[in-house]
Amino acid sequence: MAKAPTVYDVAERSGVSIATVSRVLRSPAAVREHTRERVLAAVTELGYVPSAAARGLAARRTNVIGLFFPGHDETVPDQPVDSARGDTVPIVDDDSDTSSDTENLYFDEVLRGAEIEAWRRGFALMVAAGRGSSREALVTDIAGRVDGLAVLARTVPDELLAYVARRIPVVILAGAQREDAFDHVSASNGPGMRTLANYVLQGHGVRDVVYIAGPTDSPDDAERLAGFRDALADSGLAEHSVRILRSDFTRDGGRATAARILAADRPRAILCSNDETALGVLDVLEQRGIRVPEDVLVTGFDGITAGRHSRPRLTTVHQPMVELGRAAVHAITARLDDPTLDPQAFTLPVEVVLRESCPRV
Amino acid sequence: MAKAPTVYDVAERSGVSIATVSRVLRSPAAVREHTRERVLAAVTELGYVPSAAARGLAARRTNVIGLFFPGHDETVPDQPVDSARGDTVPIVDDDSDTSSDTENLYFDEVLRGAEIEAWRRGFALMVAAGRGSSREALVTDIAGRVDGLAVLARTVPDELLAYVARRIPVVILAGAQREDAFDHVSASNGPGMRTLANYVLQGHGVRDVVYIAGPTDSPDDAERLAGFRDALADSGLAEHSVRILRSDFTRDGGRATAARILAADRPRAILCSNDETALGVLDVLEQRGIRVPEDVLVTGFDGITAGRHSRPRLTTVHQPMVELGRAAVHAITARLDDPTLDPQAFTLPVEVVLRESCPRV
DNA sequence: TCCGCCAATGTATGCGCATACACTCGAAGT
DNA sequence: ACTTCGAGTGTATGCGCATACATTGGCGGA
C-alpha cells in the first residue's frame, strides 16, 4: 500500500502530459496509437488505478447509483463472530419449519436487477439499508455519493426525499403511483390481484371467499385490495358479501388470521395479499387437517421462493422483482440524460402463477 | 436539480469561512455552539449535501468498501421490461420443482452481512458482479472507488488482485486459507465436514458410505474432502474402503451421480459436499422409492434455505454467511486502521444441523 | 499591568483528474 | 511560397472539500 501513483506519475514515466494520460483513459481515439501504447505500458508498470473521487470531482458526476432499502432493524451483536481456531463444531437439531429469511428475497432480487442494469449502463451500485434513527444522515450521505437514488417506498420520509431530489434524481420503487415530483416504478398490483381473484371467483366458481389484506400503511396492499374489489364487481358481487380481514404480511400473522377465520366458519377460498400470509394460512389448514385445494383454495402474492417449496405449492401473482430493480436504474439514467423529463410512472407486468393451492380448473 | 450548493454557498449565507462550515460537519465540537447553529440553519435552507467526491479527494479516503462477487453470466435482455399499461395479466402454470435461484442465497446473505458491518463502521458499501470479459476493467474501476475490497474466491485472477492490492486492502472470501499476501475469511469447511462425517460413521455406526465431492477447482470443496478423510482416519477406515465420486455442486449433477451410485449398489449413507448436490440425490432416492433416512442417510453442506423445505429436510453443515460478510468488512477496516498488519486468516465456526435426512441417533 | 496561552475562526493550499484553450507541425489548398 | 486547417499534444484551471498554519481576541497568572 505504497502511495498510489497518479496521472502525474504515469505522465512522467511515459514522457507525455497529464492531459494525454487522461485522454488515453477517457477517449483513446483522440490519441495516436504509438502514444497510447506508451501510456498504457506505464499504467501497468506503475499499477495505476484512477481515483474515482478525483474523477468524480472534475467531471461533476460519480457514475454511481444508490439503492436504499429498509433495514431489518435486527439487533446486531457488537462484534462479528471471531476467528475460531479451536474448531469444535457444535451439533444442533433444527426443528423449525418456518424460515424468516425468505422475506429478504424481495430486496435481494431487486438489488440483483439494479446491479445488472447499472453495470450495463456503466454505473456502479451503492447499497444502503435504512436502520433506525440515523436514517436521515445515511440518506444524505449516500445522496452525496451518487448521481441518482432509488428508494423503496416508505423507507424514507417524503420530506427527506424532496430534500435529496433537489440535487439528484430520485425514483421510488414499489409504492403506489402517486402524483408527485418523483419517478415511480412498480408492479401491476391491482390488475394482478384482479385477474387472480377473477380466476377464483369465475374459474373455480367460488362465492364464499375471504380476503386477508396487509397493513393499512402499505401502498402495495391498497392496490391489491382495490384489485380484489374490482374482481368482486366483475362478478357482480357486493363487497359486504365477502369478508375482508387485515393482517400484517407475516407468516405468523397469517396463522393468527387463519385461526380467526376458521373460528367462524370455513370459506371455500382464502385470498392473501402476500405470500407469507398465505404460507401461514397453509400452516393452520394443514394442522387442522383441512385439505388444500380440495376443501379450501389459498392464494398469495409476490412469488417468493418459499411458495414453491410449500406443500401444497402456493398459487400466487409473481412480481418481476429483478425487472423492478432494472427499471429503477433505467428511470434514473433516463432522467440523468434528460433532466427536463416529466415525472414518470412505470408499471411492470405481473403473472398469475398457478400451483396446487389453487390449481387450473 | 439546480446547481448544487457548496461549502462556499453555506459559508457565505451563514457569514463564516468555509473552514468553519467544514468543521461544523466534520468535528462539531471544535465550533462554538452559536456559530454551529447558524451554519446548520444555512445548510438546511440551501439544501446542502456534501459532495463525497470532493471529500474523498481531500481526505484521501472514500469511506466506501467494495464487494465483488461472481456474476451469473445470464443472458440479459437488452431492454428491461417496459411499462405495460395495458394490464393484461397472463396466467401460467408452474410445474417446475427445482429452483435455480436458491444458489444466489449465499451471496445475498454475505452481502447483507457486509452491509451491516460496513454501516456500523461508517462505511458505505459498493457492490459489483463480475461478468464475462470486462471483469478486469470492472475490478480496477471499483478499486478506484473504494478504500478496501472484498472478493469472493476464484472470481478474480490472483494477478489482478495483486495489482489492486498495491493500492487498497483486499480480502478474499470463502476460499482456502492460502499463504499469500491477502487476508482471508472463510468457514471451517474441514472441521465441519469431519464432525458431520464422524456423526455418520460413529454416531450412526455406518461403514458403507459414498462421498460426493464437488468440482476440483473449488477450494472449499478440497477442504471438505480433507475433512471427510480425517473422519475416515478417526474411525480407522482406509480410504479405499469407501467410494469418493466427483460432481459439480448442482442439483442436476447430484441426480446424475446418485444414479451412478445406485447402478452399482446401495450404500447406507451418501455424504455430499454441498446442499444442492444432496437435494439432487434426494430427488433420485424418492423417485426410486428408497426411504431416507431408513434406507439411506443423506447429508449436505452450506445450509441453504431449500434444504429446510425438502422432504425429508436435509441434514447439513451450516455456514454463517452473514457473518462471513461481516468478518470480511471487519478485516478490511482492521487493515485500514493498521496497514502494517500481517496477512490474516479468519476461520468462522460452522454448525452441524441435524434434520430428518440424517437424524439424531 | 503585561505576557502568554488557548479557544475560535480565517486563509491558503493541495487532493487527482477532466477539459477548455493554446500551441505545434505537417499536409493540403491557393 | 504562403495560408489554412486539423490532428495531436501541452498548459492552465477549477471541481468542493479538509486541513495545516496564521490570526484574533479574551482570560488568567505573575
Automatic annotation (TrEMBL), chains A, B:
Keywords: DNA-binding, Repressor, Transcription, Transcription regulation
Domain of life: Bacteria
Entry GO MF terms: DNA-binding transcription factor activity; transcription cis-regulatory region binding
Coiled-coil zones: none
UniProt region (Disordered), positions on chain: 76-100
UniProt xrefs under SUPFAM superfamilies: lambda repressor-like DNA-binding domains, Periplasmic binding protein-like I
Domain HTH lacI-type: 5-59
CDD domains cross-referenced by the UniProt entry: HTH_LacI (cd01392), PBP1_LacI_sugar_binding-like (cd06267)
Identification of the protein by name: LacI family transcriptional regulator
